[in-house]
């Protein structure tokens, strides 16, 4: 059952509860007992004895009864989860006294949950009382009178004498202590209220329970447990809205989309759903659209009135923090926002915590978030106050009309949404209370557009005034050369002038003591920085792409709190001051500093150092100056010949030397903590035996090392190595034995000079991915591990032999995909082709059996992995294919129902495609996607059924005027077809399949023609029953594991199957 919630301020009601149900059994058992219990507790309940005997839909004649009921119990499933969790916290059977808090934002359903809880368990107590609207009653009548009312109900005595706040007569407490009571104190907003009404646990008898609902978590500090109420699930929210708007569980077809918009607006808040549903009841579609469009601009006043109660109880500084977050800072980092607001003189950390306690703000992964309705409420308040501006159009109007009001405290303007605007040089003198100023671009400026600022100024080319209350100064494309001389920056926490024309920041009369974040990225006119010792609290400095900046002042050494220094792309920078004494510096970006030739003494605490594309020749590190670097990126430092010989690489975890073309020796002084090492495109000729020390290394990349001829056998001692990339090592002609690489999962050997692969590769139990494309000297493949999933051997013209991967061990069954690509391997002998095709048959069958035996687990998350792709140069469909035909279509008119009933598992498909290219050129590189569509048509005793199945394969590399075989199995695309066949096999007597191959997409211009030369369809069956049973037990005993080795070739496919119904099936 679910709960249909009534409005917060209900109209006059004739009934407390409207009871509805479905089914005779429900009526004569649970429902009748619930009805009796409600009547026993004097809860006026409506139940239609005549009209709903069989659980029919509620008739229109009963809607008035529903509307006049406080609570309508039509289906309590939406609230059951809350009740069950609360019952667990209450532990009714125990003899102790327990206080439980129900906490959540306004309108979220706290009161309703408490009401339902009361109706379910109140009969287990001597007396009970639901004290509603405690906040309002305490303000109106006072706490003494409210306590007297509560105790009178509990003790069933109207003549209690209780006139003093701090004194409760002993005889009253003695009577309470003899009773097991259940109390609900609803909407408590002050701890004094809870203290006055429920005091201590020892006021009440053993087994008593007190429920306290509140929007303020701080009020609940002294309760035993706090239960947080969150928004309704989408399905329950849609049902609640529909009940209010249409008097039934689901919206009419024409109103579904509008109902979804309304549900999205309410975002799970029952109050909003009820108000909206009631307001939209019996309205036309056009009226729905108008109301929902209006809500974008003006929130509903009834909803806002309830939500604003929490705001009204805040202190003035807390209100400022709330409005700032609602208007400007939602989604931003909590610590950053706190720093900015601290600069405004607000105790931000404490204030944010108070907002969290009142359910006005939540923190998710250190980001400040708000419910949509609460944010709208805050923005509506700010809009009425005129204190904060964030609408681009409105700000634009105030700028061009110069009508800025002095009440404005914050301006956030998206300058990408407005046109040119003339700025009066003293425009900001009209807003002396301005604390937060942000002119930003949500859409980056296009590269080919004019870089001139949108701000225009007259003869005075300087800004004359900025308020000194400003804490956040963020002005992208700032059009002036300097800041106003009377702007002392004493409260500025962040100064962001990205892409501005500023040449100089401040001189001696500035004192930015609070400045923590400085961003002058892409300031192309900035030549020097000011004396940074005036800003001792700086934590982040970003100066990327300041093309004319030639030096960093020595005063940077005074910044002991500096955490990030970003100097990327500062092309004129030739040297840096000594940074060793910057104890807090953790991240240093120097990528693209092409004239930086020397780095001296990185600080001890540095973790990340990015030096890619620098002109760095030498890196000196003072002996004994240990640093804790974890990541170093030196990509394309073409002049770098060596790394420092000190201990600064002991802690390194990731080191990239890719493209360091002057580096000819393997770095010997790397610590054994390294996990990823990239030596690609260096001049290294061999690997030192010291590599065996790198026991934690799991990725080694040496792609494009043209001088590398062989690998040391020491590499086989790397027990953790998972990925080894030796692609394009064109002189690499031999590999050592590989058996020691017990964790190796992926090996890339494209473009090497290998003639053979070590035979012990079959012993690698974790091995799954092997790339051997363009190995022009490779003549044969050894036996490969049975768990291999990806094998690419494209363009290996001399490859002659290939042994089946399943010769030694049975294939380990798991939900995974396979890709074998032998394109342009024209020299394969018949044994090799037979092994490849036999392997394909077995793997497809194993995948089909797995899907059949794990049908319940074979959902979309897994079925997309159950696929097999094979590409092979040749012109023959495998002989094991059930049906074959020349051309692009085939008919199967001998389908037997018994095939589908007994052994049918799934379908596999195969085509031979003939390509015609304008010129035969082995150097020509083709890059396109091939899309194959198979139209499956089944003739049955009742008519026809059609399915369209699509398969996409990518082609990268040369293409010859030749034939290519494409064979595939994809359970995701055939699952629905297979299920239909199993259900309708007794009616199928003929089937036809028509294939079409075409270029689907290309990454470069491709002029190529293709046609389907022959085709085949295979009914994947398993005739060997004992084999099925053996395989089944083996499958079901294993764990379901997703393969991550398919990412290199998984393509996004269009909707893979379209169903067409012919008249006979309608």
Automatic annotation (TrEMBL):
<feature type="domain" description="TIR">
    <location>
        <begin position="13"/>
        <end position="154"/>
    </location>
</feature>
<keyword id="KW-0677">Repeat</keyword>
<dbReference type="InterPro" id="IPR032675">
    <property type="entry name" value="LRR_dom_sf"/>
</dbReference>
<keyword id="KW-0378">Hydrolase</keyword>
<protein>
    <recommendedName>
        <fullName>ADP-ribosyl cyclase/cyclic ADP-ribose hydrolase</fullName>
        <ecNumber>3.2.2.6</ecNumber>
    </recommendedName>
</protein>
<dbReference type="InterPro" id="IPR027417">
    <property type="entry name" value="P-loop_NTPase"/>
</dbReference>
<dbReference type="InterPro" id="IPR058192">
    <property type="entry name" value="WHD_ROQ1-like"/>
</dbReference>
<dbReference type="Pfam" id="PF23282">
    <property type="entry name" value="WHD_ROQ1"/>
</dbReference>
<dbReference type="InterPro" id="IPR045344">
    <property type="entry name" value="C-JID"/>
</dbReference>
<dbReference type="GO" id="GO:0061809">
    <property type="term" value="F:NAD+ nucleosidase activity, cyclic ADP-ribose generating"/>
</dbReference>
<dbReference type="InterPro" id="IPR002182">
    <property type="entry name" value="NB-ARC"/>
</dbReference>
<dbReference type="InterPro" id="IPR000157">
    <property type="entry name" value="TIR_dom"/>
</dbReference>
<dbReference type="Pfam" id="PF00931">
    <property type="entry name" value="NB-ARC"/>
</dbReference>
<dbReference type="Pfam" id="PF20160">
    <property type="entry name" value="C-JID"/>
</dbReference>
<keyword id="KW-0520">NAD</keyword>
<dbReference type="Pfam" id="PF01582">
    <property type="entry name" value="TIR"/>
</dbReference>
<dbReference type="GO" id="GO:0043531">
    <property type="term" value="F:ADP binding"/>
</dbReference>
<dbReference type="GO" id="GO:0006952">
    <property type="term" value="P:defense response"/>
</dbReference>
<dbReference type="InterPro" id="IPR042197">
    <property type="entry name" value="Apaf_helical"/>
</dbReference>
<keyword id="KW-0433">Leucine-rich repeat</keyword>
<dbReference type="GO" id="GO:0007165">
    <property type="term" value="P:signal transduction"/>
</dbReference>
<dbReference type="InterPro" id="IPR044974">
    <property type="entry name" value="Disease_R_plants"/>
</dbReference>
<dbReference type="InterPro" id="IPR035897">
    <property type="entry name" value="Toll_tir_struct_dom_sf"/>
</dbReference>
